[in-house]
Amino acid sequence: LFTAPHAGTFVFAWTVVVDATSFVFSELSVNNVAMGNVISDSQENNEYHTTTGMVVAQLSHGDVVKVRSNPKVTIHGSVLSSNTHRTSFSGFQLY
Length: 95
Fold this sequence. Notes:
Layout: E1 2-3, E2 8-18, E3 23-30, E4 33-41, E5 49-59, E6 64-69, E7 79-80, E8 88-93
Antiparallel strand pairs: 1-6, 2-5, 2-7, 2-8, 3-4, 3-6
């Protein structure tokens, strides 16, 4: 979760790692409006799967950015974050 401290153009990236035989549809939203999404799907190959998404967004002061699972799609399996597999969310102000 990130709340914009001031207006500007920001770049956000998120990485989702799913366990074997898992399926997760994740999205980055600004004020609960989807701005980008990725599908992490290891159901076919029975291995861990990593997916990264990136969004450039013009934000106003107080806008809230978050990564969430898509509320319209059912998650199957597990999202991982460990010493060897890291699910993450990051961002920076471009200008």
